[in-house]
Structure formats: C-alpha cells, structure tokens
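Students often ask why we bother encoding 3D structure as a string. The short answer is that it lets us treat folding as translation between two languages. Here is a chain of 391 residues written in the first language.
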Amino acid sequence: MTDKSYSLEEIRLRLNELDDQLLSLLSERRQLSIEVAKSKVKTSKPVRDAKREQELLVKLINKGKEHYALDAQYITKIFHTIIEDSVLLQQSYLQELANPNYSKPLARVAFLGAKGSYSHLATREYFSRKQTELIELNCQHFRDITETVEAGHADFGVLPIENTSSGSINEVYDILQHTTLYIVGEITQPIEHSLLATADVSLEDIKVLYSHPQPHQQCSEFLRHMKDVQLESCASTADAMKKVHEINRPEVAAIGSAASGKLYGLQPIKSHISNQTENYTRFIVVARKPVDVSSQIPAKTTLIMSTGQEAGSLVSSLLVLQRYGINMTKLESRPIMGNPWEEMFYVDLESHLESPEMQQALSELTKLTRHLKVLGSYPIENVKPTQIKLN
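And here it is in the second language, the structure alphabet:
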C-alpha cells in the first residue's frame, strides 16, 4: 500500500488477503518439511540440525531488520513456532515408517474428565500431530483410563504425570507400578487457570469453588487470599465447570481453562491465577504395545527399579548411567505397596532403548537392582527452541 489514505474497510480487506497468503505459504512450507523428512530417510540424518537452524534464524533476523524493519524478538518468536512444527511433522512421519502397524486413521483414546478438561485438550493436541481421527472416551478416574486400555476398549490412554507448579502426580506413578501398559508418547501442555462463573461477580461474592485437586494446589497462593470459600473437589476441571453450570448460582465458581469454560456457558472472573506464571503439565500416552523409535529422532526411555536396602545401592545404579553418558531427566521415588519402607524409583532417561549404551546400562542395572522394568521408549516431543545470541 502507498501513502494514500485508506478506509478501515479497505485496510481490513488487505489484511484478509495477506492472511490468506500467509496460510497458503505455511501450508506449502509444511509440505516441504515432509519432503525433507523423506530425504532424511535415505541419508539417515537426524531430524534436528542445530547448526542449520541457528544459521536460518540469524539470516532471517538480519534480513528482517534490513528490509522489513522487523525486530529480532518478533522474528525469533514466529520462527521458533514454525521450526517446532516442522520438527514434529518430520518426527511423526519417521515414526509412522518405524511403526507401520501402529498408525491408525481412527483411534479410541481414554482420558480424564469430560469435554474441555485439560486432559481432553492435551489429547486433541497430541493426536492432531498424528492426523488421527479420535473416538473420545471420558473416564472419571486415572485407574479407569489404564483399565479401559488394558481391556482393549481403547487404543491409547492419556495421563497427566507432573506439573511445574504442584509437582508429580503420585496417583499416576503408583498406577504405573502395576499396569501392563507401555508409555508410547508424551506432550507438555501450558496450563492457564482461570476463575470461572455463570455471571460477572466480584471475588468477594464467591462462596463455593469447584475443581480437580491439582488446580487447587496449583492456585493455592491465589486461593489463600479468598475469604470463607469452600473448596469442592471434582474428577476433572471439566466436571467442575459442568457442575457450576448446573447449579447456576453467582456465588458458585470453578477453576479451569477459560476457552473450555465457554463450552459450559461460563465466563472468566479472574485469569492467570496459578502460583507460577509458567505453568505446564506433562502428559504421557500409554498403549498395550510398545513403539519403536526411529534412530533419527531424540528419544526418552522410562524405567522403574527397586534397589537393595544396602547403603549406596541407589548411587551405584545411578553411576552406571553416568558411566555410559546417559542423561537422567527425572528421578521419582514412590513406596512399594505391601513392602513397608521400600521404594520404587522411576527414572526418565534421554536415550534410545536399543542404543548400545542403553543396552549395556540395562544389563548392568539388572544385576544391581532387585526389580527392573522398562515402561517404554518414545519420541521426545518437547522441542527446545533453537538458541542464538541476539545483539
């Protein structure tokens, strides 16, 4: 557009044209990402090329400054999202090749709560990357999810396992001790808690607050300042929102996603009420059979083990991982039911199960531990942003 004055309607029409062009270009870029994945099948190159990503970002930042007056932060933010999408598309393509019998155009998935729960949102986000149509199965309890998959009534189950604010979800860890299922995937989702009600009321007027116990923990600092509020627990945030909708009284509210609240006719009274500004929940995906992970994709392996009661037995096991250069990203202990004072350790490792280092480590750990079980090896889908220095 020139310096000529344009009406608001003309400007909006031009913006619409530009948006259409952007969508077309993004679609074309996605298709080219798949072509890149196909070429990497032949060359066996890893999906991520840090040097190439860094060079690309630097080039785009310099060009943006020079020719389009766009600042570095703006360009970096946009292209981090584009690079993440490209990486996940390529990983999904390579995983389909590695697991031809696992790819399904239609999948039955069990998750916690009704439509609009955080588990439901995570389920849709995860499987949207797989271009899989879903049959959604709502469950009231974590145990119901695993039992539904074990019985063959669902192909996959989605379980929240840890949150950056409230920590590990112990009930899920305890279920993993006894399930026959395998972890086949993971997804980390931003959690944006809001206070939701049927009408625009003041915080002082709210007397009853429904939610799942986890959001109660994650918003404890905010709740501490609310006077004379009765906290009520529900099976999920969706059930809490549904309950508030049914009661339909202004003094009754729920904690949940503002976007999901719209499904139940609720409006946000207060947003961003979590203890931490950056609030994320990691979900795992479980199935009856394990998956193979392409060697071109970064992988995580999760195992559980119990060590002897001798001093230093856990340290000896961890030194095995250090010796083989295997990075541990999570160590969680839980009591073994029926065995007082004994604990089971859950360990997340950044390693392919079939790698020589992992196989050697497992061989040694088997001799050192009283019990050892691999819960699954699966692609790492938390794509870390490409790091560059901004001037």
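Translate back mentally: The chain is about 40% helix and 25% strand. Keep this in mind for the problem set.
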